[in-house]
User: Fold these one by one.
Assistant:
Number 1:
Amino acid sequence: MYTNYVSYFLIKEKRIDKFIPGEIKSTILKHDITSIFAYSYTHNLEIMRYVRDNFSRNKLIKGGNINYSSNNISNNMVLFISHRERINNEILNNYIKFNNLSSNTSFKKISSREIRSDTEICYGNLTKNGTNSFYEYVYEIQ
């Protein structure tokens, strides 16, 4: 009985959503984020009140990317966020293309937070619906 009890909590901990609205809002405010690029089919931000109230959602872009623009643009700080994969040059280039930035645009990494998980969001092996990972990067556009 005790083994099942401990096992349940270990599994439950792996499945707890890493997209905590208060922490994401804190990152946005701390770095004065003016653009959010949710990539690789990351739709978690769409249900977060702070994001909905302060950012305009642009269309879904090829590859399941969503670009959000702040209602108050004051700088060039971008939050890249995903539940599936770490950031790479292809994702940065997709951001550049979508926002019609110069091909000479460069990025300076300000902060990052990565929580990798191989645990599926839902129980069972019938569907592969993404992991419970969390990848958050703050960049300044140069």
Number 2:
Amino acid sequence: MATVTSIVSSYSNLVVSAAGAESDLAAATGYNIGVPAPGTTALAPKDLLIKHGGGKHTYATNVELLCYATSNNNDTCTMSIYGISDSGPPERIASLIYIFGTALVSSGVRWADSCTRTDTHTGTVTAFDTAANRIVKVTLDTDGYRYLYAIIHTTTTGAATNITVLMRPFS
């Protein structure tokens, strides 16, 4: 009988940098192949080869993303997710438009309950439990990437602030 191994970790913050209008990170001026995307240590890409939270793994083939913000019902924000290999440029995995619902993290802080995706990934980017005033879960495979990098481009509707993205690696 074959042994099935599953690796699950706790959630950790996928630190995102803020930017203005959406632009393609792969075309950014001065980006060097093989170097993680621009940013300080605090805004560096998430390295998928290091341990996350209480998990015991050092590599994940999939991640789940959750998003919350200080926001009103139906506020939105646009976020791009990039995958980066050790010796390649950043590759856009998807552009995500999160819509915040009525499920509360705490007073005035709401979970995203919907996500519209523009998928540019060779794998699958999927949103589960969407548009139900619960917590939308976005999953994507990370095969071939060492780093994940996220950029919040704009708050498109309303005035969402303190946008936080949680990432849970699994395989």
Number 3:
Amino acid sequence: MIKTSRPHRLIQGLPLASVIVCLAFSKAYPACGAAETGSPELRKAWKIAHDSPKSKIVAQLKAGLDKNPHSAEWNEVMAEGLASHSDGQAVTYAETALSLNPKSVHILATCALCSLRHGDIRRAFRLASRALRSEPTNARALAVLGSCYFDMSQETPAAESFQRALESAPNDFDVNQLAITYYGHTLDDRALECANRLVKYYPNSAEAYFERAKVKRGDENPAVGLPDFDKAIALDPGLTDASVYRGRLLVRLERNKEAVTDFDRAMQTRPTPQLLFRRAISLLRVSKPKQALGDLNLAIKICNQTQNKSERVFVPSQKVLPNKDYMMSWLKRMSAEIDVGYQDLALADANEILKIDHACDSALAARQALLRKQGRYAQAIQDLDILIKLNPDVSDWYEARSEAYSKLNRTGEAAADLATAKHIDEFGK
């Protein structure tokens, strides 16, 4: 949705009434791009591309595209709408539009944007550079180029590209959206300025409120972002990311019951391991270990399927969850199993974790407690020896080992550990 010289040339020769309609639409949507002067139906479609829920975008834009399958503009506006929701199909529609109108710089920039959204940074960089050779002030291409430079850790050209993009089209949706991501990562106050512009010029866009909410949640008072998350979800209940982000914010605010509701909504459209993991954490915090256990089992199962392993095997090579979250899923599952009385499963989980991380204190602590419950004191002592070596100033480990020594009639060692525990409790170490 970039202003170029092309629409102004298209206005020449139009009836006065059509010019008035085009200018009125341009005023309301100041950077509406290639559809600025198209048919009323196409102009309406371009408005829908950013101001509507994805389900409405797909239905209405597809209806127009079915009537005009060989229209470069209709294919582009479909790409525009889907790209704003990070839909991979946007690339296909953008490429079709470019094949129908290969000389269009605007469509070329849209192709670059869609490639960027799809994660193809090299292609996005190449297409944006090509667009800028023909039109050096094309704001969308500049913003895409800035994002690519930032991804390549080239800070100076990234900053320059975004500055030029915003100077060229300060109210463009995609330019501001990309700028928010860039300035947000660099902790620049301009992220909020861009977000405020989105809300001002696209007041019916769930994405606009969502972008501003994400910026505000980094504030010292993260609750200030909640009204914008609420507005985004009210405008588009199917905007899964908004539910996920609000759920995560509610967790930070210790409003875990509400967080579970948001994660439930998100799960209806995108049941990913990440969501299962997050919902499980909230369920544990509201004392629902059985439900949390179900989510954690499924999350680990999905991760392990990529390596054809069962959910009872720790797979460090899985690529679905970040390693930290995958490990935490195992630790939380072990904890939930202990809470609901599945001691054998918890012990098996601890053993699997310790095969990979021999010094995992959480797994060692859980395993020694389970071993003591099962009367396997000698094995429990081995784990406690490691825990004490890792952190010699924890009195609980000496008390536990003292108990284990007592059960084995090793009274001298038991007394020594008990004395050490009391000393730590009194003096701190």
Number 4:
Amino acid sequence: MEIIRDGTGNCYTTKVDSTNRLYTSSESFVVEEIKAKDGNGFILHGECHTAAAASGGLLYFKNTSATYDVYITRIYIDPHTLTEDYTIQQIFDTTRTSGTDIGSTGKINKNRVSGNVLEGDLYISDASADMTFSGGTQYHSFPVSSRSTIQRNMNGTNVISPGKSIAFQWTATDGTGTDGEVISLSVNLYRTLIEE
């Protein structure tokens, strides 16, 4: 019985026995791990600020690629010391007003030696510029409070197609937010070529 190696250096093998039955050896990986290994796993990250308003934007990402869909796997929300309680809303395809462009520093490839770059616009609300949103489809809302870490698993079910966007907004539960409170927001995602 001959053993056939796949030639990738990963030691995957297959063989055919005397009854022409095919045997394969393989490993199972989480898609996030594979995408990070092949240079297509990314993190969006920003130290986002609230404002003296009823609500405002935290982070906005628009997929500007013509060839890749972007899949969100999880988000991490880490509020610093907050004097107010807030809710965080996730919004698809909203219109952004203002904000600070952090596209050159806030899009991080998980594979630090990969040259792959995530195409997209990335803005946050920070000490330099508040950000607001209008329109779009809100599809999730959850509370956050001071120094509470929140992780939301999306399991790749939130797809940002070319030209589409996702945004994260805060709303003060008591009416008006406090200017300059910090909410650290990280979004894990990966990209996949659009099937022809």
